[in-house]
Amino acid sequence: MADASCTRKLIVEVCNAKNLMPKDGQGTASAYAIVDYDGQRRRTKTKFRDLNPEWDEKFEFLVHDSESMPLEILEINVYNDKKTVKRSTFLGKVKIAGTGFVKAGSETLIYYPLEKRSVFSQIKGEVGLKVYYIDEDPPAPESEQKPEAATPDAAEEKPPEGDAKPQEEKKEDKAEEKKEEEPPKTESPAEAKKEEEKPIPPENDSKKSEEAPPSVPPAAAEVENPPLAHSQKSSKEDKDKAADVGKSSDLAISGLELRSLDRSRCAYDLVDRMPFLYVRVVKAKRGNSDSNPPLYAKLVIGTHSIKTKCESNKDWDQVFAFDKEGLNSASLEVSVWGEEKKENEEKTESCLGTVSFDLQEVPKRVPQDCPLAPQWYSLESEKSPGNDVMLAIWIGTQADEAFQEAWQSDSGGLIPETRAKVYLSPKLWYLRLTVIQTQDLQLASVTEPKGRNHELLVKAQLGPQNFKTGRTSVGSSSSSSANPTWNEDLVFVAAEPFEPFLSLTVEDVTSGQPVGHSKIQMASVERRTDDRTEAKSRWFNLVGDENKPYTGRIHVRVCLEGGYHVLDEAAHVTSDVRAAAKELAKDPIGLLEVGIRGATNLLPVKTKDGTRGTTDAYVVAKYGPKWVRTRTILDRFNPRWNEQYTWDVYDPCTVLTIGVFDNGRYNQGKDIRVGKIRIRLSTLDTNRVYLNSYSLTVLLPGGAKKMGEIEIAVRFSCSSWINLIQAYTTPVLPRMHYVRPLGPAQQDILRHTAMRIVTVRLGRSEPALGQEVVQYMIDSDTHMWSMRKSKANWSRVLGCLTRAATLARWIDEIRTWVHTPTSIIVHVLLVAIVLCPHLLLPTLFMYAFLILVLRFRYRQRVPRNMDPRLSYVDAVGPDELDEEFDGFPTTRSADVVRIRYDRLRVLSGRAQTLLGDAATQGERLEALFNWRDPRATGIFVVVCLFAALLFYVIPFKVFVLGSGFYYFRHPRFRDDMPSVPVNFFRRLPSLSDQIL
C-alpha cells in the first residue's frame, strides 16, 4: 500500500498493433487509439494506411484514490481515422481490470486481443501495451515550483510532434468526432458532481451510426480531457461515482462483467454510490450516580440536529444516516442529556457531557465488510465527569444494510410515509360458481292464491361483488314444491386471503322477498388447473328467517380456477401473464434490473409555509405483482434516489411502468401525479445497460405540462437465448383462456373488479400506497370516454394505413407513367414473374431480408417513452379535457352535458355513415348471387359462362400477362371515365334503401 502522502500515477504505453481489420475500402486502415481511465482521456497519433501501426506513445493518468484502483477499468478503443473514410469506424477495444496493474519495474509488453463491441462487428488483431503505476512524492509548494513547469493538462494540450495537421483542422476533427463517432465517455468525479445539478436532455436521434452511443450526457460530450487535479474532498466524496457506471446511455460493460469486477457493487451497479455519514448510538452509562433518570442523546452537525429516544434504561440502539453532501460542518458533536423531575413537577434537563468527532477522520466501510463495532467514548463535562457513551460512526453508502432502518436526513427521518417500501399485489383467482338447480322450495304463503307463477333467480355475493342468474318461472301451490333449473356460470375475482364465505340467496322476483339463503365456506372450495377435471357438485340447505329453518336446497358447483391469469391491469401495460396456480408456474427466462437514479428540474406542485413552492418527490415502479417505492426526498427539485431493484422476467413482451409522485400523505393529504414512463422489455437488447433521461409529462385539466425529467438505468439480463426465443412461439395467456375463453364484456367486468381489489388491498398496507397512485400506474380509467384518446386512436389507424396508401399511390404512378423507367421495369418484372413464377416467393423473401438487414443500423437504440404528440395532448380543447377529467356519472351542469352530447352525435354520425358505406359494398357483392337485380345477375351469369370457356382455351400465364399490360397501359390508351366493371358494380342494389 502506498503512503498516503504519495501521489500515484498510472502509466500506459501504447506500443503497437498487429493484423488490424481493413476499414477504408482499400485494404488498409489508418488507426489511432483512445485511452480512457477514471474520467481521463488520451489519444494517440494516427498511423495512416498501416495494418500494423507502431505508436510508442506513453500516457500518464492520475489515480485519485489508491484503494479503489483495483475497481477501476482501463479501456483502450482503436478507431480508423475519418480522414480516409466518411466517418471514424471501430477497429476494436481492450478492457483491463485494475487488478492487473503492476508496479513500475515489473511491466512487460503484453498483446491483448481486440474485442468486439457487438455481435455484428468485424474485428480482428491485437494491441501491444505496457501498463504499470508509480508512486511519487507530493509536489513542492507553488513558491518553490519553477514558472515554466507545465501541468499535465497543459502538456496534453500541446499538439504532438510530427502531426502535420493544422490546429484549426484538428479542432474541427475533434468536434466532429465528439458529435458523431466517439465512444461513451466516463465523467470525472468533479463533472459527475456538477451533472447532478444539470438536466439531461432526452435523446431523440435514432439514426446515429453503429459505433456511436445512443445519447451522451452534456458533461461527457463537452469535456474531452477532464482536469487531473482534484481536491481531497472531491476525491473522497465522489470516488464511488467515478468507480461506478459512467453517465452514458450505452454502457458496454454487461452485468456479468460488472459482477466479476466487483462483487460488492452487484446490487448497486446501475446507480451512483451516495455517501452517507452513519452514527449508531447504542447506550450510555453514568459513572458516579445511583439514580436512573431518562436519558437521550443529541447529535449536532452544523445546522443539523437530531435526538434519540428518551429511555430510562439508557439503551437506544438507533442509527442515523446523514446525507454527506448536505452537511455544512466538518465536525460531529454527540451529547447526552438527562431529564429530572423536581417536586414542583417541572422537568429539567442537564448535560452529562459531550464528545466531538472530526468528520475527516471518520473511517469508510464497504458493505462486504462486517458492521463496525461500537466503542465507549468518555464524555467531557465539568459538572458530572465519568460518563460514557457507546456509539459507532462510519462513512457508507445507500448499499449499507443499516440504511433501511436508519433515520435518514434527506427523507424526513423516520416518517413511515417517506420510507422506501416494497409492496406485493394480492394473489388473484377466478372463482367459478355454476348454479344448477334448486329443490323443495317453499314458495306459497297463506295470503297468496294457489297456482300463482313465480319468477326466481339466484344471487351470489363474494365480498363487495354481487352477481345474479337469469330469471326462471315456476308454479307453486301450498302443497307442492318447485324445482327450477338454471345451469348458469357466475365468475368472481377472489383475492388471497379469501373472504370467509360465498353467500347464495334464492329470491322471488314476483314478491320481492328472499326464499332462502346459504353460505359456502371458501376454505372448502376446491381448486383446479385445467378443464379436464370437473369440480364436484354439492347440495346446500337454504335457510329462511327464524320461523323457517329449512326452505329448500340448492345444487351448485364451485371451484377456484387456477388455469387462468387474472387480468388486473390495462391490456396495453400488461406486466404479468402467469397462471394463478403454482403448479403451472414456469421458470423465469431473465432478470430485470432497474436503477432509479434521480430527477432534474421538477416543478413545484405545492406551497410550503404558504410562501414558496416545493416538491417532495418519490418514484413508484411496477412490474408483475411487485411494486417498489423509493424513499421520499423532501423539498428538492433535483432529487437523487440512486436505488436499484430487480424483478424476475417470465415473458419478454411485458411492460415496466415507472411513475413519479409528490408525497402528500405524510401531511395528511393526497399524492400528486408528476408523470410516468413505460418501457417494453421486448424493445431492449439483452445484457445491455440503458441509461437515459425521460421527460415527465402529466395531463392536467388545463392541458399537458412538462414536470421535469427522470434518469433511469435499465438492464434486461437473459442467460439462455433458446428460452427467450421460445417465449415468442408460445401463447401469451395460459391455456384456459383459449380452451374455455371468457367473453369480452365479462373480461372487462372482471378486469375492473380486479383493479379495485388491488387498489383496496394496497391502500390497506402500512404505510399505504394511495388509491390515486395505484390507479394512475395501472391505468384503471382506460375504459372511460375521452375525445383526446379517440383522436389519438384514429391517428394510429391512419398511421397503419399510410404504408398501404403509399403503395397504392406508387402503383397509380406506374399506371399513369409518371416515371417512365419505373413503369418499364415493372413491365419487365411482370414478364419475368409470368415466365418464372417459381422465383416469385424466393425473390420477395430475399428482398424483405435485405431491407430488414439494411435497416438494422437505424433501429431505435433508446427505449421509447410516452409520446405527447401521439397522445394528442396538444390537439384538444379545454372543454374536451374537462370532459375527460369529469367523473362517472357526470357532475357538470345540464347545458355542458347537452353540448357534449351534441358533439358526440356529430362524431357518431360520421362513424355511422362510414359503417353504412362499408356495408353497402358488401351487400352489392352479395346481390350478384341472390338475384336481387335479375338483369344484373343475368349479365353476370353470361359473363361467367364466357369466362369459363375462354380460360379453357387461353393459358393462365397469358391471361396474367395480358391483364398486367392492360392495367399498366399508357395514359394515352386510357379513358378518363370509369371502367365498365366499376360502373356495373356501382349499379348493384344494397339494403340501404330498406332502412327506416
Explain this structure to me?
The protein is of the alpha+beta class and 996 residues long. 24% of the residues lie in helices and 30% in strands. The chain contains 18 helices and 40 strands. The strands form nine sheets. Strands 1, 4, 7, 8 and 9 form a five-stranded mixed sheet that branches. Strands 10-39-40-31-36 form a five-stranded antiparallel sheet, with helices on one face. α12 (820-835) runs antiparallel to α17. It is flat and about 120 Å long. Residues 141-265 have low confidence and may be disordered.
Oligomer classification: single chain
Strand content: 25-35%
Low-confidence stretches: 141-265
Q: Ends: how far apart?
A: 96 Å
Count of alpha/pi helices:
18
- Percent of residues in helices comes to 10-25%
Q: What can be said about this structure in brief?
A:
24% of the residues lie in helices and 30% in strands. With 996 residues, the chain is α+β, with helices and mostly antiparallel strands.
Label this structure with key terms.
18 helices, 30% strand, 996 residues, 5-stranded mixed beta sheet, alpha+beta, 5-stranded antiparallel beta sheet
Which secondary structure elements does this structure contain, and how are they paired or packed?
Blueprint: E1 7-18, E2 31-37, E3 40-43, E4 54-62, E5 73-80, E6 89-97, E7 102-103, E8 110-113, E9 126-136, H1 152-157, H2 167-181, H3 189-195, H4 218-222, H5 232-243, E10 250-251, H6 255-261, E11 276-285, E12 295-301, E13 304-307, E14 315-323, E15 331-341, E16 347-358, E17 375-378, E18 388-396, E19 407-408, E20 421-424, E21 428-439, E22 453-462, E23 465-468, E24 472-475, E25 485-495, E26 501-508, E27 513-521, E28 526-528, E29 537-542, E30 552-561, E31 590-600, E32 606-608, E33 612-614, E34 617-623, E35 626-629, E36 640-649, E37 655-662, E38 672-680, E39 689-700, E40 703-717, H7 721-727, H8 736-739, H9 744-763, H10 771-778, H11 787-815, H12 820-835, H13 840-854, H14 878-885, H15 894-930, H16 934-953, H17 956-967, H18 980-986
Parallel strand pairs: 7-9, 14-19, 28-30
Antiparallel strand pairs: 1-4, 1-9, 2-3, 2-5, 5-6, 8-9, 10-39, 11-14, 11-18, 12-13, 12-15, 15-16, 17-18, 20-35, 21-25, 21-30, 22-23, 22-24, 22-26, 26-27, 29-30, 31-36, 31-40, 32-33, 34-35, 34-37, 37-38, 39-40
Helix pairs in contact: 3-5, 9-10, 12-17
